[in-house]
From TrEMBL:
InterPro entries: YlxR, YlxR-like_sf, YlxR_dom. Residues 9-84 form the YlxR domain. It comes from the Bacteria. This is YlxR family protein. PANTHER family: BLL0784 PROTEIN, YLXR DOMAIN-CONTAINING PROTEIN. It holds the Pfam family YlxR. SUPFAM superfamilies: YlxR-like.
Length: 94
């Protein structure tokens, strides 16, 4: 039986390649709005972030998403909060 290919993506924060399902996508739409895209299907320029709290916290301190999306801190603070919330939600056993 042929093994199914697992799509891999590179985290913009840690530079690690991981399976797409283990990542969160942050997207900037054509209108310039930046949002977390948990489905991974929204239109726009996307960036993948590892579902790892220490990496997200370090990125917030070093302003990595601000550099990537060329946006200000006020715009991206809610994005960092949403990423952290989604990581905590994924930790809850189903």
């Amino acid at each position: 039986m042929k093994q199914k290919k697992i799509p891999m993506r590179k985290c913009i924060l840690s530079q690690e390649m991981k399976p797409k399902r283990e990542m969160l996508r942050v997207v900037r739409s054509k209108e310039g709005e930046i949002a977390v895209d948990p489905t991974g299907k929204a239109n726009g320029r996307g960036a993948y972030v590892s579902m790892d709290l220490p990496i997200i916290e370090e990125a917030r301190k070093k302003k990595r998403l601000e550099q990537f999306f060329e946006a200000d801190t006020e715009t991206l603070n809610p994005i960092y909060d949403e990423l952290i919330r989604l990581v905590y939600r994924s930790m809850i056993p189903k």
